[in-house]
Specification:
mainly alpha; 2 domains
Length: about 200
């Protein structure tokens, strides 16, 4: 979001220097440095989560093999309802038998509610993160793809242990709260440097 706050200045630099890519790159770097903004810093928290995510998945997978049965509030079992092996994925939900999932609606409802909550929280987070400025042409396809990302995460949450879906939900809520602070609480308001005027050509 700090990068988004500097977006108008970056656009002005591109308009000012036209096809001079070296000057655009130099001025863009100067703006980021003076504002104390690193465009790649936002990737670090995501990378840190990857080993945690994978470790949690393997832990729940192994726990389910050992008849692990640990409920959490409305969730009957953190390692359920997914079965690993030949019945992996959404075999607990599809195909319906007499209008109900194979495990029955009473047991399936909390497991279905969790991915729905994940999708809703992801949509809310995406709306908060959406930039106020008009995106550039090169960014429009990326933003369209991001709109479908919550649905993809929700579908994936149906195919993994409930504990992983719970992790996603908690992470999404925490991320959304952080974004609210950054956007509305002033946490992402960098000191914007003054733009350098285009040098005048002496006659």
């Amino acid at each position: 979001m700090s990068t988004q706050n500097l977006s108008p200045m970056i656009k002005a630099i591109k308009a000012r220097y036209g096809d001079d890519k070296e000057r655009i790159q130099a001025e863009t770097s100067r703006v980021y440095n003076e504002a104390g903004v690193n465009p790649l810093a936002g990737c670090f928290p995501t990378l840190v989560q990857l080993p945690v995510f994978w470790g949690l998945y393997r832990a729940l997978q192994n726990a389910s093999a050992d008849d692990f049965n640990e409920p959490f509030y409305m969730i009957p079992n953190l390692s359920g309802p997914v079965e690993f092996g030949s019945k992996a994925g959404t075999s607990w939900l599809f195909p319906f038998v007499d209008g109900a999932p194979p495990i029955g609606w009473e047991l399936a409802t909390p497991y279905v509610a969790l991915p729905i909550a994940v999708v809703v929280s992801q949509f809310i987070s995406a709306e908060i993160l959406k930039p106020d400025t008009e995106p550039e042409e090169s960014q429009k396809n990326t933003l369209i793809a991001l709109k479908f990302l919550p649905l993809m995460v929700g579908w994936f949450a149906l195919n993994v242990p409930a504990g992983l879906g719970l992790y996603w939900l908690a992470n999404s809520v925490l991320t959304t709260a952080t974004q609210c602070y950054l956007r509305f609480g002033g946490g992402a308001t960098p000191i914007v440097p003054k733009p350098v005027e285009k040098p005048k050509v002496s006659g």
